Amino acid sequence: MEVEAVLVTVTDAADKLGVNHQFVRKLIKSGELPAIHLNARAVRVRSEDLDAWIAGRESRGVA
Questions:
Q1: Mean pLDDT throughout 10-16?
Q2: Residues with Cβ < 8 Å from 5, sequence gap 6 or more?
Q3: Cα–Cα nearest to 50, from 20, 26, 17, 23
């Protein structure tokens, strides 16, 4: 049985991270956060990719 990926909007991803949507778009453009481009304007982020990005940031610690 295949589990479907949960997709979130850029705005929802920004809310989860506590940042503005422009920061999330910058992460996507730089390739740091994978995204799915549904068309020229609609972009979605897999919830699991967002969680992985957060986990990666947590493991770096504070310098």
A1: 98
A2: 46, 47, 48
A3: 17
- Distant-in-sequence contacts of 57-60, Cβ < 8 A, 24+ apart: none
Report all structural domains of the chain as residue ranges with CATH numbers, in order of start: 7-60 (1.10.1660.10)
**Residues whose CB falls within 8 Å of the CB of residue 45, separated by 6 or more in sequence, listed in order:** 7, 8, 9, 10, 13, 24, 28, 33, 34, 35, 36
The pTM score is 0.82
Closest CA to 16 of 30, 33, 29, 4: 33
